[in-house]
Amino acid sequence: MAIALVLVLIVVGSVLFHFLSPWWWTPIASNWDYIDHTIIISFWITGVVFAAVVLFMAYCVFRFRHREGNRAVYEPENKRLEWWLTIVTAIGVTALLVPGLFVWSRFVNVPSDATEIEVVAQQWQWSYRLPGKDGKLGTSDTREVAAENPLGIAPKDPNGQDDVVVEAADLHLPVGKPVKMLLRSIDVLHDFYIPEFRAKMDMIPGSVTYFWLTPTRTGTFQVLCAELCGQGHPLMHGMVMVDTEQDYLTWLGQQQTFAQLSAPQQTGSANPLPGKTMASALDVGAKVETVEAR
Fold first, then answer.
1. How far apart are CA 53 and CA 85, in angstroms?
2. Given a cut of 80, is residue 52 above it in pLDDT?
3. Whole-model pTM?
4. Contact 182/116 with Cβ under 8 angstroms?
């Protein structure tokens, strides 16, 4: 009797915790409310199955408890019960999978007007590359990665010369405009994840994965790595700022292109300019500006 009561209390407590819990999703900031709807459907299906199974266990524990003089009936097969279990299970699994398949179809079909933005992950920072005035991203290769070319942009590709490089700094996106996030890792597995956007995807060395989204409200959102990538994994944070169109264009105009960053630097001057300092290219979270002065 006590075991049956405990099982019933587990079901009641789980249901109450689900509805009364203060921990829930962050407010959504993209077009992917479809993902929230799919998760809610999954919660309801798995919740109903969980409650039904545990309550059935409680019933069996109570109904078939040991009593003097009672003997168990051995029934090795019950085709009617097997058919019911097969049909109900098939319906439940289908209800779990079908909504996700519809969402996945939308997730991988990128709108034709989406702007491509490359996200480059490495232990333990985020960098970004945006198309320049030609609207095209140049090619890249991990074999081209070097201190003066940290994103591995192909130096001989003319399409990459005007690419905007944002190394170890914040990314800005325009509100209401679809963007395709091209995901690339230059060392180990990472996962680009912004909870408010819901969309996320693994970043696999040697491959380019992607997802797309449309930011729906302005604000500052934290970037997380959702794949264990080494000792610095918990510290691999970043920021994505969703701006109005004017603020985004202002920020974009302040960034440097690959051609500017890779241009030969003048190392000497008879009249050095005052107030210039050497900024570390590894300073995570700050704009990367390397200026040498003597």
1. 12
2. yes
3. 0.75
4. yes
